[in-house]
Amino acid sequence: xxxxxxxxxxxxxxxxxxxxxxxxxxxxxxxxxxxxxxxxxxxxxxxxxxxxxxxxxxxxxxxxxxxxxxxxxxxxxxxxxxxxxxxxxxxxxxxxxxxxxxxxxxxxxxxxxxxxxxxxxxxxxxxxxxxxxxxxxxxxxxxxxxxxxxxxxxxxxxxxxxxxxxxxxxxxxxxxxxxxxxxxxxxxxxxxx
Length: 193
Ligand code: ZN
Description:
Layout (H helix, E strand, L loop, with lengths): L2 E5 L3 H6 L9 E5 L4 E2 L14 E3 L1 E7 L8 H4 L3 E9 L1 E2 H10 L4 H4 L5 E9 L10 E6 L2 E7 L7 H11 L7 E3 L7 E2 L6 E4 L1
Parallel strand pairs: 1-11, 3-8
Antiparallel strand pairs: 1-2, 4-7, 4-12, 5-6, 5-11, 6-8, 9-10, 9-13
C-alpha cells in the first residue's frame, strides 16, 4: 500500500506558512514504513528540533482508481478516518529553501499516524462538512472542517488518479487546517472526528 498526502488544502494553513493557495492539489508521498498504528507512542526523531503536528482527515481507498473523474471517484472510497502527518518543519524549511524534495521531513519512520476509528460515508448526515480537531494535553490546538478544504475528497481522488493509480488499502491524507505547531516529549495528543 501507499500513502499519498495533500499539502496546502486549507486557505488558513497555507497562509500561516506563507505559502500561496494552490491552483491544483499539491501532493507528496510517505512509505508504508512511516505508519504509526494502535495509538503507539511517537518517538521524536533526534535529527529535528521542530516536529509539527498536522491533524488530517484520511481517505481509505476501497476500489482501484485510475484516471477517474470526480463523479467516478466517489465510488472509490467508503470510509473516512483521522491521522497525523508529522512533519519535521525545520528540515522541511531547509529543503523548501533549496527547492529540494520533502521526503526527509515527511516520510520518516512513524510520521504517518493513523487513528483506529473509521466512519462510513453513508453514516454521515453531512458528508461534506466533517468536523475534526486535535487536542494536546487536553487543549484544542487545531480545528478543521472538510467543508473548508480547497479540494474536496472526490476532486483529490480524481486528480491523484491522473498520475498515480490508487489501489484498495491506499491512504490519502487530505491536508491540515491552521494551527500546526511543535510537539514535545511526553505530550499527549488526541484526535477527534
Ligand atoms: Zn499535512
